[in-house]
Structures are given as structure tokens and as C-alpha cells.
Task: structure prediction
Amino acid sequence: MAQIQLRSETEPGTDAGIAGRLPADTDESAGTGERPAGKGASFLDGVRASIPIVIGYFPIAFSFGAAATERGFAAAEAVLLSAVIYSGASQFMALTLLAGGTGVVVSSLTLLAMNLRHVLYGPSLLDRAGPRARTRWAPAWAFWLTDEVYATTIGFLSSRREAWSERWMLGIGASAYLSWVAGTIAGAVAGGGALSSYPSIEAALGFMLPALFVALLLSILSRRSLPVVIVAGVVCTLVAGVVDVTTGILAGMAAGAVVGALRRGSSTTRRTE
Amino acid sequence: MSKDLIIVAVAVGLGTWLFRFLPTRLGRSPALASGRLAGAMEAVGPAAITTLLIASVLPDLAAGGPERTAVLVGCGVTGVTYAVTRNVVVATLIGALAYGLV
Result:
């Protein structure tokens, strides 16, 4: 979720040992588009890969549920926002907009603009998964394609591309989603301050997602991706400082994509010359 | 339950799902297989993770004081743990624990 608050191509990554022993999932039967049963990372592998996300989501969703009820929303309304929108930054913003009496159209367009970056996730993920990756269940797993699920999947694809499967996507996505909804319910029922007696635990849970991003960044970092990382980081920092964090994320991602496009374009030109 | 809230939730939920799902159909396009667009798609992953990391730590870093120290310690311990274990889950958990203890 974006209210939030890299690896050598040959190194094992996200969940070492989980899927490395599994055979290729993207090998479809010739011409049929059907994947032989039993291949690729399993649903349970996806659930295991989701552990940091599950642990990280719960307290954030908890704070969302608590914030919603503190602002006068019903617990059912908080859960509805989590279950239907399922995008942290947008949900917190929704509380502000709706509580402030902003109109439905303006509120909806503002919140959708915050989620525009998600447009890039599907193509990027499938590009890394390879031309034979299946998308039969994309309508389901795409609903769960949050920032953290996408980032963890990119880490997985960097080391286990051949094991990527839709079952794995469903496993990681469903677990993260359940954690998010459960956290919202707990927060809406318990209210704020439930963890205030345990400040160390509260702080550790709050840092789970930044720590996940650090580890993921290291897991996919390579000489090839370094320029993209540097440019995206600098642009994001500058724009976030001048405008806001959401615009910073969008600008950094766009700048990184431009660097990737320019590098690919120049290498293609050199090959054709 | 507020009618406005329901409308906003459904509109934003549907729109966000379309943002996440419809482009997966573009992912099957041959246009993505090569050229600049492929380079851009390949770069989106590292760029997204970088920007999300920055967005998540920037407020604490800007705040200075103990918050900045805790973030630096948490990130450092996460990095060292990953370098040693090459395991994202373990590095994340230990890094978060270190942050909580600072």
C-alpha cells in the first residue's frame, strides 16, 4: 500500500528455497496454451512469500480501521473501503475527503489519480514472467496487485522466473488481502491505542514494509538496474519534497522507465549498426 | 451506511481493479516484446521498489532525531541481514525488529 509510509541476476532472491526446486510453470503445452498440472510455484509458496506483507499490512490496516471509527465512520464502512478499494493511501485519503464533505465525483477522481501508477504493474510483471506466462486468472490476482505484492513478485521473478505461476500469485495476493481486511476489522472494533502499551512492537510492525522494500531492492539490484534505481530515487526524492509523496512515486517510476527505454533503445541501435 | 461512501468505494474499487487488470492484456502484446517499451517495462520494477522505499522512509528521515536514527539502523540491519542470509523474509523481520528496539 502506498501510504507508506535490489541482486545480481544469478543470486537467489525473495524466498530462497521455496520454489527453486520446482519445474517450469511458464512452459505451456505446445500450441494449447495449457500448462501441465503440477508445475510452477504453488499457492502455498505464494502464501509463504507473503509473510512479510501479511505482518506489515495488519497494523497499517488496523490503524486505518481505528482512524475511520475515530472520525465517525461505522465499522462496516471502514471494512467496505478496505474490501472494495484495497489501496491503503487511497483509503486514508478517502476518510479525509468524505469526512470533509467533498463531493462524490471529486473524491472518486482524486482517489483514482492516486492509484494510476498501478497501470504499469501488470505489463511490467508479465514482461518479466516471459511471453508464455498465463493470465487466465488475471482478473482475480490483478485485484490483489498492490505495491507490496508487485514488488515481492518482481523479486521472485528476478530469481525464479521459470517458477512463476498464477497459483503463486493467488496465494500471495489472497493472504495479503485477508490480512488487510482482518486488520481493518480489528482496528475498527478495538479503536486506536490498542498497541500503545507495546511501543517496540508497534514500531517494529510499522517498519515492516520499509524493511521489505530494502530487502527487495537488494534482491533485484544489479549493474544493469543501477542507473534506473539511482534516477528513480533522485527524482522521487526531489518531487516528493517539492510536491507530495504520491506525485514523487509517479515521477520516480516514470523517470526510471524512461531510463530503461533509453538504454534499451541505444543498445538496439548499436546492434543494428 | 452512507450512500456517498458506497458510491466512492465502488467507483474507486472498480477503477483501481481496471488499472491493475486491463494492462495485463497489454502484457500479451508483441509490441512489448522488444524495443524501448520493453526497456521501460523492465525498468518499472526496480523504479517502483525504489520510489516506494523512499516514500516510506522519507518522513522519518526528514524528521531527524531518533526517528532518523531508527530508520537508518532498521535499513542497515535489513541490508546486512540480506547480504548474509540472501533471504528477503528473514532480512525483513530482523530489520523491523531492530527498528522497533532502537
Observations:
- The helical segments of chain B are 3-26, 35-63, 65-85, 88-101.
- Chain B has a mean pLDDT of 86.
- The two ends of chain B are 42 Å apart (CA to CA).
